[in-house]
Specification:
The structure holds four protein chains of four kinds. Chain B is 39% helix and 19% strand. By secondary structure, chain B is α/β, with parallel strands linked by helices. Chain B has one domain: Rossmann fold. Classes of the chains: A alpha+beta, B alpha/beta, C alpha/beta, D alpha/beta.
Chain lengths: 65, 271, 379, 182
């Protein structure tokens, strides 16, 4: 079992690369890789859910542990 | 757990049609959460929209959905609600749809205080037709039909709704995602006409013409311009310049239209 | 038991016909000379649990009617020329989304405000082509108070059966005159309700024409969740731009009305002394009453005149007119406009007979004397 | 040839002449089972100025629903007389309120007159029933329906509290004209 607070699932085919999630992530878990968002620091996630809430494209699911 | 939006969405419809960074998707998610909060039976819920980007919400949510003509959503919704007052009726649309071509239907639905919830996404522009100015485009701003700057004064949608008689009026922004569902849910629970104005961003047709370098710039501005009503009470007029009040702006109790009409039916039957 | 009789105004008979047909919703906006329909229904609908709403404008009225129909109520609106002009946008919506509803147009002159209290018949082509895009049209034109009642019932039946808007057009003369009417007993006139789906809610597709070219329509607020849009759509109701789907849907929606079996069902004409006629007057609404008077006078003089009165204006009775055109020397077209249905008669007659025309747009009816003179000239 | 009879009631808007026309049409079509069509002027002119109500009565179905040549005309005011007391056929009849119509229309018809409104006020007791006085008078003048049919139609139309008043108004008008015709 991971000690991470949450697992972040990115549905790449829905992501339009707006970067809202990455920009407003308080712990910089996410970052843009060209036009798609990637998880770059999964351990930093505090499960605040802001990325999931703000993603306009239904492309992020945050599964809390 | 991640929030389960899928059960409320029609299968196979994603990705949606909105541009990267458009806030309509954020609002749609808020609407779905609010519908869940209020435990709305989708079979007994009508989502009615007009024409425009925001109006496409009706195609995605699995309910009784009615995508109507430009500006006419509130009037169609009035017919649905009158015929079946037991239905939950939600109207979704944009600023141009709701306050220009649909302005008359909008104000009269407010005046009647008919029990429906109107989520109006105000992104200051006609997005679908390519960025013409709307009644909500700030004066001086650029649009495809105001390249020299918009000469028109603007509508304040919430004030318009209050003035017209809506009994629940609230405002938030696409940035304030956690507030969207709470206000919509409060609107749904409110008996009467509730208006939830969501200040939204259109990066493609408004942002680019008006010196927003990115979606992020637009989101930051939404964040900065929002002042909760409670906080605003302690601020000076100067401090409030260029700000937008958010939260519940107006709430009152007034007889609801279909309930009033039910009394007419009783009267007529006993006459 | 003797039937209930009354001296009734045409507009009142229209409202009574709507109630007989099971109308449960009226959305309207005041306009002369149709307003009495709204007034009567504002009193009568709530007595039976129905709903009346006076909307903020004509477009809103039409919108409310479509919304109410989709929620399962038989719905009606009534207006006159300028108001019907405004409604055109949403009459088109009702066409493409296949929403049953009835639109009454008590015709006055025009264009624009025209002569609000004078009669006219100048909206007959608007009824056919007023909304944009290709579509079928069903429109009927009663000529008496009794017939306004029965044709309003039939309009509801056709709307429900063919799942589309149906227009009832009559001029101010029949709308405002009073005549004796016999009220049909319940069950005496047929009353048709829309076909409800038999598919399960999961399988229901609101525009699936595989079983019938008029797909069953579920109601909002029943067990069915579905999507309705004014966009071109596929069988499931969702928008599509696929050429073959768009084409098939457009053609189906027209053919459901214009195919021969449907025409035979929808068309209704009255013929008076046409069997041996050498000249036939083509007239509808109040003008047909003048025409009948004229035919009787002409017959007294030994002139073999007859009357063809389309009760269904659209679809146009083209087969019968084509036959008559071969039989007679002339079809005299008379209408209170400057030649609207004349275009159809000419199109169908294809020059096989003369098609002299008499039209008025001065707010006065076409009188029998004018018609008698025109028929004589045609011979 | 079936008989077609055309009657025009004219006066000022608000005098109740449209109602008078409707009652006559009901007397003919509902009480006596004949055919009748009633029509009237609409719009601003019905709310003031001269207004008219026309009734066509026939023993066969009525095709043309508008007046052609009027058999009988009532004019309660000078303006109505000037505007509507035309198109009366040769040998037709015109009834005037003699207090209000001073310049009598001329033509090949017979003119009868009495102070209709004053009769309602002074002999019946209420000016408001002048239209029913006029209706009784027109029926007496034309015999287009039976006296009893007209009375039955009047009584079916008015509220119960006013039955006696209207009955009196109707017979007063009827008798006045029958006296004139003696």
């Amino acid at each position: 079992m991971s000690s991470r607070k949450a697992e972040i699932e990115i549905i790449e085919r829905y992501c339009k690369g707006c970067s809202i999630c990455a920009e407003f992530c308080p712990t910089k878990v996410l970052a843009m890789d060209a036009f798609v968002v990637k998880v770059v620091d999964a351990d930093a996630c505090i499960a605040c859910m802001q990325c999931e809430l703000r993603c306009p494209d239904f492309a992020i699911k945050v599964h809390k542990n | 757990m991640a929030y389960d939006y899928d059960k409320s969405l029609r299968p196979g419809k994603l990705p949606h049609i909105w541009c990267p960074g458009c806030g309509h998707g954020i609002v749609m998610k808020g609407l779905i959460r609010a519908m869940d909060t209020c435990e709305l039976d989708r079979k007994n819920t009508a989502i009615v929209s007009g024409i425009g980007c925001a109006s496409r919400i009706s195609g995605y949510i699995d309910a009784c959905t009615l995508h109507t003509a430009h500006g006419r959503a509130a009037a169609f919704a009035t017919g649905v609600k009158m015929a079946k007052p037991e239905m939950n009726v939600i109207v979704v649309g944009g600023d141009g749809d709701g306050t220009a071509i649909g302005g008359n239907h909008f104000i009269h639905a407010c005046r009647r205080n008919i029990d429906m919830t109107y989520v109006i996404m105000n992104n200051f522009i006609y997005g679908m037709t390519g960025g013409q100015f709307s009644p909500c485009t700030p004066t001086g701003d650029k649009a495809s039909t105001t390249v020299y700057g918009n000469p028109d004064p603007v509508f304040d949608i919430s004030k318009l709704a209050i003035g017209a008689g809506a009994t629940f009026v609230a405002r938030t922004t696409a940035f304030h995602a956690t507030q969207i569902d709470k206000l919509i849910a409060e609107g749904i629970k409110h008996k009467g006409m509730s208006i939830i104005e969501v200040i939204d961003d259109c990066p493609t047709t408004y942002g680019r013409r008006n010196q927003f370098r990115s979606v992020i710039d637009m989101m930051k501005r939404l964040k900065d311009m929002a002042v909760p009503v409670a906080a605003a009470a302690k601020m000076t007029a100067e401090q409030l310049d260029g700000k937008m009040l958010t939260g519940v702006l107006h709430k009152e109790v007034r007889p609801e239209y279909t309930e009033q009409y039910a009394k007419i039916i009783d009267l007529a039957k006993s006459a | 038991m003797a039937k209930k009789v009354a001296l009734l105004q045409g507009n009142d008979a229209c409202a009574q016909g709507a109630l007989y047909a099971g109308c449960m919703f009226f959305g309207g906006y005041p306009i002369t000379p149709s307003t009495e329909i709204a007034e009567v229904l504002s009193i009568e609908l709530p007595k039976r649990g129905g709903k009346f709403i006076q909307m903020e404008d004509e477009i809103g009225a039409m919108a409310s009617v479509i919304g109410a129909s989709l929620a399962g109520s038989k719905s009606l609106t009534a207006s006159s020329g300028p108001g019907v002009s405004l409604k055109q946008e949403l009459i088109g919506y009702a066409c493409i989304a296949e929403i049953p509803c009835v639109i009454i147009n008590v015709m006055r002159g025009g264009p624009s405000t025209g002569m609000p209290t004078g009669p006219g018949q100048s909206d007959v082509q608007q009824a056919r082509w007023g909304t944009h895009g290709d579509h079928a049209t069903i429109a009927v034109a009663p000529a008496s108070v009794q017939e306004i009642f029965s044709e309003t019932v039939r309009a509801f039946n056709l709307a429900e059966k063919y799942r589309m808007p149906v227009q009832v057009l009559y001029d101010e003369i029949v709308g405002h005159m009073r005549e004796r009417i016999e009220f049909p007993e319940a069950g005496e006139l047929e009353v048709i309700d829309r076909t409800a789906p038999t598919d399960s809610p999961e399988d229901y597709k609101p525009f699936d024409a595989s079983k019938s070219d008029v797909p069953p329509l579920a109601a909002f607020g029943s067990d069915y969740k579905f999507h309705v849009t004014g966009l071109n759509k596929a069988a499931d109701g969702f928008p599509t731009t696929k050429a073959e789907l768009v084409d098939a849907e457009e053609r189906r929606q027209i053919s459901k009305v214009e195919k021969p079996e449907a025409r035979a069902d929808i068309e209704s004409n009255e013929e008076y002394l046409t069997d041996d006629a050498e000249v036939v007057i083509f007239a509808y609404g109040s003008t047909s009453r003048s025409a009948r008077y004229a035919v009787n006078e002409l017959r007294k003089e030994g002139i073999k005149a007859g009357l063809f009165r389309p009760i269904t204006l659209w679809p146009f009775p083209e087969n019968r007119i084509a036959e008559l055109a071969k039989q007679v020397k002339a079809i005299v077209v008379a209408e209170m406009n400057l030649g609207q249905m004349l275009l159809e008669v000419e199109r169908v007659a294809k020059g096989t007979c003369a098609t002299p025309f008499i039209g008025r747009v001065d707010g006065e009816p076409i009188n029998p004397g004018q018609l008698i003179a025109q028929v004589k000239e045609a011979l | 040839m079936t008989k077609r009879y055309e009657i025009r009631f004219s006066g000022a808007g608000g005098q109740g002449l449209i109602t008078a026309g409707i009652i006559l049409a009901e007397a003919a079509s509902i009480v006596e089972g004949k055919y009748a069509v009633q029509s009237q002027s609409y719009g601003p002119e019905a709310r003031g100025g001269a207004s008219k109500s026309e009734v066509i009565i026939s023993d066969s179905p009525i095709d043309y629903p508008k007046a052609t040549v009027v058999d009988a005309c009532l004019a309660m005011t000078q303006e109505a007389a000037d505007k509507y007391a035309n198109g009366i056929k040769d040998g037709g009849v015109l009834l005037l309120d003699s207090d209000f119509v001073k310049n009598e229309p001329k033509g090949n018809f017979k003119t009868y007159k009495f102070p209709i409104t004053r009769t309602a006020k002074e002999e019946v007791g209420r000016e408001i029933v002048a239209n029913v006085v006029a209706l009784g008078a027109m029926i007496a003048l034309t015999d287009v329906v039976a006296r009893e049919s007209g009375e039955k139609a009047v009584l079916a139309k008015v509220p119960e509290a006013f039955l006696d008043l209207n009955k009196k108004a109707y017979s007063t008008g009827y008798d006045k004209v029958k006296d004139l015709l003696k």
